Amino acid sequence: MGRLCSQVLHSVSSTQPSPGNTPSSSSSSYCLTVTSSLTNFTCVCVCVCVCVCVCVCVCVCGVFRDPRLSRCLTFSRDGTLFGWCNGHSVSVVKSSDSSIVSTFDLPKTALLEFSPLNGVLVTWQPYTKAQDSPQGEANLQLWDLHSGQLIKALYQKKVDSWCPSWSDDEKISVRSVNNELHFYENNDFNSIANKLHMQKVSDFVLSPGGQPSKVAVYVPGSKGAPSFVRLYQYPVLGGPTAALANKSFFKADRVAMQWNKKASAVLVTASTEVDKTGASYYGEQTLHYLAVNGETALVQLPKNGPIYDVAWSPNSAEFCVVYGFMPAKATIFNLKCDPVFDFGTGPRNAAYYSPQGHILVLAGFGNLRGQMEVWDMKKYKQVSKPQAPDATHFSWCPDGEHVVTATCSPRLRVSNGYKIWHYTGSVLHKWDVAAGSELWEVRWQPFPEGSFPERPVKYQAAPSELGTTQAPPTQAYRPPALRHLPATPSAKLHEEEPPQNMRPGVSGEKSLSKSALKNQRKREAKKAAKQESKSEPEPQSDSVPITNSQSEPSSGDPEMDKKIKNIKKKLKAIEELKEQQVSGKVLQKNQLEKIQKEEQLLKELEELQI
């Protein structure tokens, strides 16, 4: 443990800001927690201070030292408290000075969570049974952080939805019990204030913000009936007209539901385990929109393929979807589910909005190379394009200026470490885990909303001793036999689409309907064709123009002429395929089979022309 701390301390300053206080406008401080394994467990909290001159220094604001193996760690929502379990007990400390708040004798704790106002600490441990206790022990505990007393012990066998959900003011909390929802008020978990009785509630999401609280519930389909998602407003949970909105759909084995920040709408990503069309190995996904005013819609995605990620903008007025077979598309939609801006195609599978919503990062992690595209969301202009290979974690700093990428175990057990970036692509700090060690988790210290105001987007790279890592331009694969030849556009395996603004009237034109726009394009094409015909000089010839009927010899038998024409058409298509094959394009199986039929078609044509 001392070995790791000395490595961090050697690279940091001795200045100690106060992360528990609201940062000033001239300088900001925020905390990064790193969990790593050496011989023993070590949890280090590193604070990064950003000055006005964008000069970044790293300093220790509080070091939580524990030589024992850690099971879990978490910050409170406002970042003032930090808790972890070391396999012997659960400890809660203040982030500002590391002073102990509470300690609980819970050696088997695997998950921790604070309530929004830090009134309750929730701990969960795996459910077990003993010979003297066939029912098992209550494995979900709720603790009063002010007194340290146990509020309630409950049974929670499944790890899914293990933690109760709270409204931001802690007036309402809800948990799923035996496929129904139990509501509690004012942290009184000894009495159920209300219930949502519905057959087989599989998942739910409580809305963010204060009152009135809303809840989105999902019920999977059965016996030919469709699945559905419904929105309710507490406490009106019963009756045929209680639902604010309802959306039914087939093809859903599971769903992911996301409220926007204002709690006015929900995005539902419905997924199936198997794609019956055979187009995708990973199943099939659809995206649905539900609003609390009753509006529902299926979000139409222009490109076929899986939906990799869906993210609401913090302004709650638009959302980003990353979708389609690789290279994937990314599109911004408004609340009418109309496309606003298309980022084109690229190697990406994730979208991350900054906390202020002024910057969007489109990234390709996992089995992709780690390319990140940083976009200014007010101008729809790309800021930078850095690359973080082998990254398994990405998160925004609360200041909206910095991000952290990390390679963590067990996703990857080699080359573990993390990097702190400025959004302009500069690497400001880098830390690699020693050989034989693993990095388990990296997370920023949260801050209350409004602590960091939005700053103007800069396009010039921030100064850094570590420099930038811009992604190198990618090139299409070319077979060895064609590498000595000049590259041609047809050699590309995938044609990439450029970004495009899809808002009507962005170039000063009036907004037109689809039919009017179609007619306008027809008129423009007709006008262009007429001008082109006028510009070409007419051939000076006294000969009679040859008609189509005279251009090809006729056999006198209309049926035979038709067969000859069809064969010539097929031969022409084969010639085009052969040209594509020579240029390096990889042909599909059915295209190769067409080429093999060339000799047979030539023989048939020869017999017909005799």
UniProtKB/TrEMBL annotation:
Tell me where the transmembrane regions lie.
38-64
User: Has the keyword Transmembrane helix been applied to this entry?
Assistant: yes
Every copy of the Translation initiation factor beta propellor-like domain together lies at 247-442
Which residue stretches does the UniProt record annotate as biased composition, category Polar residues?
A: 538-554
GO cellular component terms, A-Z = cytosolic small ribosomal subunit
Annotated GO MF terms:
mRNA binding; ribosome binding; translation initiation factor activity; tRNA binding
Query: One biological process GO term for this chain?
Result: regulation of translation
Q: Where is the composition biased (Basic and acidic residues)?
A: 526-537
Q: Where is this region: Disordered?
A: 489-565
Keywords annotated in UniProt: Coiled coil, Initiation factor, Membrane, Protein biosynthesis, Repeat, Translation regulation, Transmembrane, Transmembrane helix, WD repeat
> Does the record bear Transmembrane helix in its keywords?
yes
On the tree of life, the source organism's domain of life is Eukaryota
Family assignment from sequence similarity: Belongs to the WD repeat EIF2A family.
Functionally, this protein is described as follows: Functions in the early steps of protein synthesis of a small number of specific mRNAs. Acts by directing the binding of methionyl-tRNAi to 40S ribosomal subunits. In contrast to the eIF-2 complex, it binds methionyl-tRNAi to 40S subunits in a codon-dependent manner, whereas the eIF-2 complex binds methionyl-tRNAi to 40S subunits in a GTP-dependent manner.
What this protein is called in its record is Eukaryotic translation initiation factor 2A
Q: Which organism is it from?
A: Lates calcarifer
